[in-house]
Amino acid sequence: MKIITFFLLIILFLMNGYLFSNEIYPLIESMDQSNILFKQISDDISSFYSNSEQEITLRPLQIYRVFLKKESTIFELAARFNLPYEAITTLNRIDKPKTILPGTVLLIPNTPGIFIPSEPISDIEFMALSWRSIETAIKLQVSDKNNIIFYFFPGERFHKVERSFFLGLMFRFPLPTGIVSSYYGERVNPITGSAHFHNGIDIAAPEGTEIMAARSGIVKTIGYNDICGNYIHIMHENNYETIYCHIKKILVLLNQPVQSGMIIATVGTTGMSTGPHLHFEIRNSGESRDPSLMISGKIQ
What is the value of pTM for the model shown? Predict the structure, then answer.
């Protein structure tokens, strides 16, 4: 009997430890001043804004949980807590604006800033980590995110490029490596010798180099013509489109969803081409845009 009681105590201890590990962050049950935890986090955030400029010692970082009872957006939640949206999106690993459904549990920090996982998986996480030194960050382990290690940069916000990329205004470089051999704008056609407007950029790369989707979307057209050779046309959110020309091998299907960075084809010399390269275009509502101004990071 004593042995059974002993094992029952062990099981209860383990169960309690498990529940505690999953409920380590206080739950804010209502997002209004009648809730003591909501009032506390609001005071902490206000204190950060008023004290950080005066170099007064700030309150320690504390993370809370909220259980959404109705549909919301990141921007609505950020406004409710008086936090920059980056603080919520980076801590919860949200890589683009989207509707947050009822029943979702989100983590909310009491300090504005950016949280970057030590092992990034999304484009925005890789970008955010590549531009910052972890030597200046606070290192913490977040239990509600499978004990992932985060680097926290208090008070920081997205850079202009990061913000544009998060909001869906930026595109990634479509090749792992390559050199832009011809830019967007007026130029002399290298084959015909006549002046014309170049609606994209040409990126020289070895034949067979993998071509990646510059942004998530759906394959609208796959085809061939005498000028573009083999080409792919992808539709994206907010009426954006990308076009990839002179392809050697197409690796996607018509109407197939693609993710940013997904390999969709290989570089070739098909169509009107002087050598292996990718002709890459970005359009919005049918009008061409200069890719050099819309590609995240440094254009190669």
Answer: 0.60
The pairing of beta strand 210-212 with beta strand 217-225: unpaired
Domain count, the chain: 2
| Residue corresponding to tokens 């969709």 | 264
- As given in the structure block, the two tokens for residue 73 are 């957006």
- Letter for the amino acid at 164? S
What residues make up the domain containing 248?
179-293
Are residues 199 and 264 located together in one domain of the fold? Answer: yes
Which of 166, 197, 226 terminates a domain? The answer is 166
Q: DSSP letters along 32-87, please?
A: STTSHHHHHHHHHHHHHHHHHTTTPPPPPP-EEEEE-SS-EEHHHHHHHHT--HHH
Of 173, 232, 226, the C-alpha closest to 203 is: 173
DSSP code of 26? P
> From first to last of its 300 residues, what are the pLDDT tens digits of the chain?
444 433 333 333 333 333 323 448 999 999 999 999 999 999 999 989 887 665 556 678 999 999 999 999 999 999 999 999 999 999 999 988 888 999 999 999 999 999 999 999 887 898 888 889 999 899 999 987 778 999 999 999 998 878 877 887 778 899 998 899 999 998 877 767 777 899 999 999 999 999 999 988 999 999 999 999 999 999 998 789 999 999 999 999 999 999 888 999 999 999 999 899 999 999 988 999 999 888 865 454
Residue 241 CB neighbour total at 10 angstroms:
20
Tell me the C-alpha distance between 88 and 71, whole Å: 16
Which of 166, 193, 218 finishes a domain?
A: 166
